[in-house]
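Human: You know discrete backbone vocabularies at least as well as I do. Show me how you would write down a chain together with its backbone fold. No explanation is needed for now; the record alone will do.

Assistant:
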Amino acid sequence: MKKVLKNVSFVFLLLKMCIIFGQESSTQKRIVIDVGHGGNDSGAIGANGIQEKDIVLDVANAILKLNNESDTPLDIYLTRYTDTLISLSDRTKLAKALKADLFVSLHCNHSDNENARGIEVYVSKKQSAYSRASAWFAFQLQAALKIELGFERRGVKFANFQVLRETIVYCSSVLLELGFLSNGDESGYYRELESYRVLGLVIVESLIKNIDNYERVKD
């Protein structure tokens, strides 16, 4: 049977999550959203021509806008705000300079197998005092995207990606793969503008809901 992502109303989801937005955070946490690729680096390209660099920028801008509209906004920065290429080292240096509490890198997947689908979340193979919290937060993000939007969970995985390796020494960090552009259903999901707002809302809700709790699981 063909599986499709949930068609979730943005208004319905916002009403459902308004109680989360109204919760007080003990201290304002600083989060860096790393917007993958950019400029002449398009990243993955879907069968419909949609490009990873554009998808993640639209998702990041939705996250930023929704966070700013919340009653208790987090302190969120993006590594890029336009279609420009930022080096990997500059992305991690920004997080360090800002003294981020959490670094979230946004990407989309691609596979030669057009049936490959689902969400993957990566944490660094390199171990630090932030490793346990990073893995915990990765599971929370993956669960939220499964429950609210119907993305399949492909598991939390360990990798040696530069942005993870260089940030894990001073903050919690995860890399989020937002589905496969090589999959017709998941690539098609991003054709609808509403999808970006809904996806952004789920991620913001997860950040606000879990940012204080994840401190408790740090080593």
